[in-house]
Every structure is written in C-alpha cells, then in structure tokens.
Amino acid sequence: MDHISNIPVQEIRPGFFGKMIHGEKGTVSIWNIKQGSALQTHEHVHEQITHILEGELQMNIGGEDFLLTTGCYHVIPSNVPHNAFATTDVKVMDFFSPARDDYR
To answer: Cystine design at 91: which of 23, 35, 38, 54 (Cβ 3.0–4.6 Å)?
Structure first.
C-alpha cells in the first residue's frame, strides 16, 4: 500500500502535470492540466479511458469533437488519433492498458 501524495509530480508536456501509478498491465495517471494547455493529435497502442474529475476538456477523438465535463469519461481505443485542449483548469484520471512504460 502507498499514498498518492508520495508520488512525485511530472510535467510530461507543457501545462500537463501528472502522477503515475504503474501496475504490471496498466497505468493510472492523475493529471492537473492548466487552462489553455493543448495536447497535439497523437495515437498509441494503449487503450485509454479518460475520466474528468474537475473542469472541462475539449477533445477530438477519431475525428469527432467532444466536450468532456466533470463526471464524463470516454474510452479511446488503441491506435485512434486524439488530441485535447483544456478549456478550464482540469483534473483528469486516465487509465492505460498496457502499462505506459514511457511514463516511468
């Protein structure tokens, strides 16, 4: 057992501050994203489940626009192009499978 407060914050991209929890087959990321921060279109082999804990995140997933607000979630299949823009300060929980070794 551990506590989330013991995990160091990493700025993975400008404005994207995350804490990563790694298991053998998955990674959970808790993000604090600053308003106006953008994540360019990308894709990866990982299935991703994005859950908005606070705020609003504009996303384009597979060519379709979504405004994800507090309580919303979206499942992003493997290799589907997606991007994000924080319309407010936002707190997000992402789950990735398989584990994100690039976030270790």
So the answer is: 54
Q: pLDDT tens digits, residue range 71-92?
A: 999 999 999 999 999 999 999 9
pTM > 0.90 = yes
Q: Number of H helices and number of E strands within the chain?
A: 0, 10
Residue holding tokens 């804990």? 53
Token duo for residue 73? 């979630």
Please identify which residue in the block is written with the tokens 């991007």. 83
Are 77 and 56 in contact by the 8 Å Cβ rule? The answer is no
pLDDT at 33 over 90: yes
* Nearest one of 82, 73, 70, 86 to 33, comparing CA atoms: 86
Query: Regarding the domain delimited by 4-103, which CATH topology (the fold level of the hierarchy) does it fall under?
Result: Jelly Rolls (2.60.120)
